[in-house]
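A favour between colleagues. Tell me how you read the following sequence-structure pair.

===
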Amino acid sequence: MAVIKSVDAKSVLDSRKEKTVYVSVKTDVGVFGASSPNGKSKGKYEARSYVKSLEEDIKMLKKFSAYFSSEKIEKFDDLRRVEDIVDRQIGANTLFALESAILKALAKEKKKEIWKLINPKAMRFPRLVGNCIGGGKHSKGINSRKPDFQEFLLIPNMKSVKENWEKNKKLKEEARYLLKIHDKKFEGKKNDEDAWNTSMNEKEVFDVLKELNIPFGTDVAASSFFKRKKYSYENPMLKRTEEEQFEYVSNLIKNFGLFYIEDPFDEEDFENFAKLLKKFQNSLIVGDDLTVTNYKRLERAIKEKSINAIIVKPNQTGSLLEVQKVCELALKNNIKIIFSHRSGETGETILADLAFGFGADFFKCGITGKEREAKIKRLIQIEKSFKN
């Protein structure tokens, strides 16, 4: 049983050198801390990162410190007590960091791995989804030219997490070599998520990825360039109607054999997601901005048959109990679960424990960059513990 003595918070810098929150919890067995990542490409329906501001959240949490002193946390479900105390007084980033720190304390107290607090019977390891080439909001591109789609993803299917990671690192280097050949402006630079910056458009990038002979996919992040009922592309400059976007995306899936396609339409467009899923049942049609780790949004997506896979980003909701509900609903309805990092990351590794504990099918966490590698290494560590 973890008895919370006090709670503290401060700001730290994420991988983009932007401020994020770090929460520490003091218990009988020590002080435990956790940080939250920051998202840049955010869905409209995400919970607010902070109620007013990061600084206000920190003040609020310090005010609440005394209220926690009588709380005893014995199991994962006891996070409900914490949520009752801070009810809507802190934002999703702060709540996620707080609950993560508490789980670390409880795990130490019980001499267990964090994932065992969620599901001691967890056995299945998620398949890695690695961001290899970048575009959209996460990239500066080259001379203002970049793909309109946000991420170009490699999804190997080897026997272990470790082998998948080794494969992704090798393929990322191969992609660099191919980009040098195909993109005369390529400078070997990387974006927010440590993916390659390119001046090419999405079709040209898919041509490169095809040469790698690996299942691959993309995060379109279509909401980020959907304006006045048109998809406004910049590379090359053109506007597509909703019908034209559907045709374009369909042709890309068909012509390039895309295994994975995330947010191909605006975050309000459940209908076109459903049409696409009906047409391409063997591809993963993934909701992120559409569903934002939100139980009601997922319920609607299931009802309308809009997706067969969902991105889970714990700090989109903050509450790990809500994350649990979302995962249970997805599992019950045969929706694949993809636990995901954010573009502004920290060295926090709890995402790996959450992904494994909640039964994720995929783990989307980049390929390189120390903050992302820390999470993949934690997943490999969990995998190793099964082999010993």
Summary: Residues 39 and 343 are 5 Å apart (CA to CA). Residues 127-387 form a domain with the TIM Barrel fold (CATH 3.20.20.120). The mean pLDDT is 96. The longest helix spans residues 161-182.
